Amino acid sequence: MPKNDISSFARLDFARKARTGFGETVFGQGKTPEQLAKIFAAFKTARQPVLATRCTAEQAAYLAEAGIACEWDPVSRTIVSKGRHNHTIDGLVAVCTGGTADIPIAEEAAKTVEFFGGKALRLFDVGIAGLHRLLGKIDKIRKADVVIAVAGMEGALGSVIAGLVAAPVVAVPTSVGYGAGAGGIAPLLAMLNSCAEGLSVVNIDNGFGAAICACRMIKRLKG
Amino acid sequence: MPKNDISSFARLDFARKARTGFGETVFGQGKTPEQLAKIFAAFKTARQPVLATRCTAEQAAYLAEAGIACEWDPVSRTIVSKGRHNHTIDGLVAVCTGGTADIPIAEEAAKTVEFFGGKALRLFDVGIAGLHRLLGKIDKIRKADVVIAVAGMEGALGSVIAGLVAAPVVAVPTSVGYGAGAGGIAPLLAMLNSCAEGLSVVNIDNGFGAAICACRMIKRLKG
Amino acid sequence: MPKNDISSFARLDFARKARTGFGETVFGQGKTPEQLAKIFAAFKTARQPVLATRCTAEQAAYLAEAGIACEWDPVSRTIVSKGRHNHTIDGLVAVCTGGTADIPIAEEAAKTVEFFGGKALRLFDVGIAGLHRLLGKIDKIRKADVVIAVAGMEGALGSVIAGLVAAPVVAVPTSVGYGAGAGGIAPLLAMLNSCAEGLSVVNIDNGFGAAICACRMIKRLKG
Amino acid sequence: MPKNDISSFARLDFARKARTGFGETVFGQGKTPEQLAKIFAAFKTARQPVLATRCTAEQAAYLAEAGIACEWDPVSRTIVSKGRHNHTIDGLVAVCTGGTADIPIAEEAAKTVEFFGGKALRLFDVGIAGLHRLLGKIDKIRKADVVIAVAGMEGALGSVIAGLVAAPVVAVPTSVGYGAGAGGIAPLLAMLNSCAEGLSVVNIDNGFGAAICACRMIKRLKG
Amino acid sequence: MPKNDISSFARLDFARKARTGFGETVFGQGKTPEQLAKIFAAFKTARQPVLATRCTAEQAAYLAEAGIACEWDPVSRTIVSKGRHNHTIDGLVAVCTGGTADIPIAEEAAKTVEFFGGKALRLFDVGIAGLHRLLGKIDKIRKADVVIAVAGMEGALGSVIAGLVAAPVVAVPTSVGYGAGAGGIAPLLAMLNSCAEGLSVVNIDNGFGAAICACRMIKRLKG
Amino acid sequence: MPKNDISSFARLDFARKARTGFGETVFGQGKTPEQLAKIFAAFKTARQPVLATRCTAEQAAYLAEAGIACEWDPVSRTIVSKGRHNHTIDGLVAVCTGGTADIPIAEEAAKTVEFFGGKALRLFDVGIAGLHRLLGKIDKIRKADVVIAVAGMEGALGSVIAGLVAAPVVAVPTSVGYGAGAGGIAPLLAMLNSCAEGLSVVNIDNGFGAAICACRMIKRLKG
Amino acid sequence: MPKNDISSFARLDFARKARTGFGETVFGQGKTPEQLAKIFAAFKTARQPVLATRCTAEQAAYLAEAGIACEWDPVSRTIVSKGRHNHTIDGLVAVCTGGTADIPIAEEAAKTVEFFGGKALRLFDVGIAGLHRLLGKIDKIRKADVVIAVAGMEGALGSVIAGLVAAPVVAVPTSVGYGAGAGGIAPLLAMLNSCAEGLSVVNIDNGFGAAICACRMIKRLKG
Amino acid sequence: MPKNDISSFARLDFARKARTGFGETVFGQGKTPEQLAKIFAAFKTARQPVLATRCTAEQAAYLAEAGIACEWDPVSRTIVSKGRHNHTIDGLVAVCTGGTADIPIAEEAAKTVEFFGGKALRLFDVGIAGLHRLLGKIDKIRKADVVIAVAGMEGALGSVIAGLVAAPVVAVPTSVGYGAGAGGIAPLLAMLNSCAEGLSVVNIDNGFGAAICACRMIKRLKG
Question: Looking at the partner chain, which of G168, G212, G216 has a beta carbon nearest the beta carbon of H213?
Fold first, then answer.
């Protein structure tokens, strides 16, 4: 196993794939560009592809200048290494949002699904204030193995979908909104209190977390 | 004007009808049966009908024993004086609930609408986890002058209705539920964060408050 | 119906007017200037006027440069398209504030009322610490079809007004204040706990929401 | 000084009067009837009168059976020793409440004022939803040295009074109310955020605390 | 389809199985024994088995007296109808708890899994304060299709398991504990903030909700 | 009385002195420099001195450039008009702080006392972690008519002082601190829960509010 | 090692002493009397003494009837097995309380210290509202190896002590108090925000937790 | 004793070492560079070394320019005076972190331990999502006199360590994380609710506080 103790600040978990089925990924937030570059280099040495989430444009620019082969997506704030691909899962994940402002979180989820080899069906701005938008797409959503419902505000999207489809639904509250319950608390509580069945929840704005849940379900259960 | 200073504990506001269009009502909770009886007697002297909310069976029994002509409804926990009727408003209020457990609050609202002379259309257990239940009744709801949406849990009923009808919607969160956001906080926040238009909110479990809002809208605007 | 799927980020709801009586509007916050410009263009294509709220000076400048005919108001942070006018409602809404700092939210409400064809009566800085200011204006307020009470700090303005007039009152807590209950929590809780009748509440700083509630009441009930 | 170490559970502070001007009092809640009886006996030995607050009927009955000369008031839940009187202060404190349910806390305040020799002017149920009730009594309130404003729900009583009188106002939020902000949080926040001047606040339901503040002001400043 | 409008208080959703793959179940809490009995009768008429959760001994006794064939389990507080069995899923769910006090919630989950035809592997009191207890059982847990981790207090059980196995983990915070973060808030927040992958969360004490999530994953993905 | 309706944004309360004994003051925060300048001009026209709190350097510079005779203090963030002096009260207020970081709030209080003609005794950094610092100054503090205790962190300064002196104590929590209870919540709660007598509380960082309470006590009671 | 899997509900950790230096203890709350009895029997079989905390009188009575040799203390709510003694530590722990109502939690701490062989110095009702009570005992407290400071209300006792002694202080907030910050939140936050050094905190009412911390310090460091 | 009243803003506590065993240190946050320089000069005059925490680069630069002999560490944000050394304690403190982002807080702790003469063993990024990382280092950790466990997110590191070692553990929650429980609330609550023994907690991000607790334990108990 390659040395994973990088300059005393991080212990990469290259054994994770053996334990959980999915290789280690990187949470970019709070890391210096130098730290991130060293981590990408370590993955390259280990001959593993890598996905970093919550990255800044500054981090991406540093990696580009440092000659690291990778791709930066400013909407989802992800950086993916080039060259090696994952074929970890084979399945379809529908990623739906209540509004336009939820898209960055949804894209983080979709990019994660795609990093691990899955397909992502994007259906954005189908919130419940205009139900016809969702009902018009429900047949498409029913084809997915797992549904990720991303919503801020009153956060009811996941409940409505879970009542209409047979797939498991992972709900992601977003920090979209203001006033009482701002920062995602209102949709988080709504999702935890859902009266629909088959809905589980991840933390506010955790698009990556929802995606890795969906991927694990597919890999473990669908094979 | 009749004397309204009852034994130094309450100052009844018999002038309210002149100011706001609606006679005073009584919040029963926390009052002793004796206090409530004196208040009912004062209304009788003032030749005004009276509605008391949040009353207990014990209060109701005391009034009955004291020979006060009134009717007790255990579901809505209201006591209404007999003999004089209100013809304050003329209109239809739809009172919808998400679940069975929201019925007591909805009944408090419906009884209040009826006390002031309005008609109440009751549609219970039409929550969003099974949308067909609501969509099957939406034409009936569209006939109402005002809609009162009573819901606990994720509290999305009002948002969905407000996106489908033209009437103003008053949303009442209920303390139904448990865990995070229990006590009505989750549906309250969801309702305040509704992305639907035309929805305003009253306090948790305040069926009376929603009804008096609806009645005021009808009286002031429909005449 | 015009195509409403704009570059995959938004699904405009041009059918809303048929369902709820009011055309779609736009929440500007969090949208890029480009997205907002595309949305304004779509409304023009659909031959509908449009109101955007929570807009920045940067968004307004972009629209102006892009040659979109519209008007930007920096106090209320609204942008309204020019050319087509709404005559959706006919009524008078009194918009009152407790203090000077509440004015931006009150202006958002007033502009919304005016966008839909209503009249707005502005009465600012009439908070309860100097009651004579409010009492001196109460006869004017009594002429309104609906009252919008905008207040931060202890948030008691709505309660006092609702006890003095016959019109429905929509209360808007503002994020004015500091310390315990900052961010609008103190006035929100005060308004939800109002002992006055006929008062309903919208989310903190939601001037638009209060106005659209008032407009719906007028359109549905006054005709 | 008498021995004040009673059975190892309490250290009575008989030196307090020398330091702060007021003799020690007793917080009855959570003490066993036996403990309370021993404390009353110690005060008797020390030849000092004593006031106990938050007492239960059970505690009162135990003291009566034990032959301790004292008076129990079930509304304010206070027990006052008989025989020796306090003439600590000379002044008038107006004790006002927003509603009927606030009376027990107001009575705790009034009894405390009277225990220390002051006069209490009781004005109950003068809340702001019917302003005429308060305005009709304002001249009486203006005669007080200090005003104690006791209110639950939206808690605006103190703000309105402080804007109309020259005396210092001590505001007491009460746990009257339900839903969001229940347990006194809503009026506490409203009082802390008051835009009126001259208003300070004590903890929820702390009628005793407000009274001892008022008494200290009178003793220290009026002499 | 059978009539599902029972005495105007509930609208049973017998069409749910067609939409989501799982038949309707009943939330017993807050329902009167009479209401529950009518619901069980309606299921019998519909020839469907039924699971009721959060039931009291009183409800169970009423059903028994009413001659309804069902089984009451006091630990999990579930009532299951007799006679018809579900064969909805085929899979193994590991149900682990941190402590002894979490067992009732874990049993609710296990009974739900079994109601729908799955197998439940119970592993109780394997919390992280004594890691050897969990590590000694990890090979058994690795055989499960889905893991349900039930924990109160610091709620770290799910994180540790999710780092060691390949199956999706549904975490259930319980209201076990006291002091700051009591009522399940501490473990809920810990689970939402888990740095392990593949963990999603349901509301506090919602053993049923976790189980139906697990069952949906198995049915949808494993077939 | 002078015209007090300034450009429709503020209604100055020049009658306040007659009602409450103290002239109006101005809350600078959130006002534009132009608004503040107009307000200072209106006070000059009314021949009244004015104190503005929570002012920025930018506001102060604007007033200076506009030729308004006033004094800016950057520590307390106050601006006081020059020329006319207040002789409203005659008394001594001790202003104590727990630490160095509390000084700006304490200075706001001291400047307010001085604006109204009182004397302020400043005793800073006498917090309870080194009790000898406070005990060494207690004789000085005992000479004050009122004590203002300004403290962040655990906020115990007011309790300790109130147990040692006979004057009323007004406690001001400050937003000094970090982590749990940050923003002043920890000292606010500590002050509200004080077991010392004679302590009342104002909102977090409200040095002005504490001072005007102290001044009112002195004016009303000491004469 | 003895069998520690008792009827499938608990896995006793008899190896703990080897790992951490202290034998397992039992949290009695939430366990049935039968479960507790089985656990005591298991300890007897393992020839280890046992301490159970948070026990009820009902549990104690059951154990007594079952013939288990143990001692029940109703104030601290502890049950200790008879026969075998612990000589785990040798040291002195001062257990101080702010008030009388904090005694049960302090006794839980003291009994725990004594169970493990240490000495407990009890100093109750020495809160900061009357500092002379604490200062008069400070020389005794200075002799302790560790100080446990138990306090509710404003919770400042630990800060004052930590500023006066050289021993480590473990602070225990108690749920004594009412109103804002009730349930121990106010003292918990005060303790976490202490500006004194050498103070660490355990959860509200966790007397046992503080004691085991103190014992570990003594055993590990003093030997 | 040297004059410690510096320009009226601070009262340095040079007597602290005599009382508590440790010399005074300085909390840099919120102090102006000038204030900090004066404080460092006062320590030099008093011939005492000094540690300042939470310092900014700007403060450090000012001290350097002012010719004060000191060392600035940007990771831990500490400034330590040069020239005089502390030999207050003799012991080993293990400082562990859950992740990379917790390092600044851990370094604050380690630098504090070293300032007082102790040895710090740094073990970073050994969080529980990959248990093997911690288990591989546990023998090293077991050699420490005290363990400081620094963790954000779900904050379980301290619990796991406390179950595996005999040393007292001081847990430091960090403000690392996002969403529900952000700002360190989630790990704080998890640590307070730990089911492991021997764990006490300091405030969020308070690395200094944990270290001074550890040092006090070592000095007082190990000698």
Answer: G168
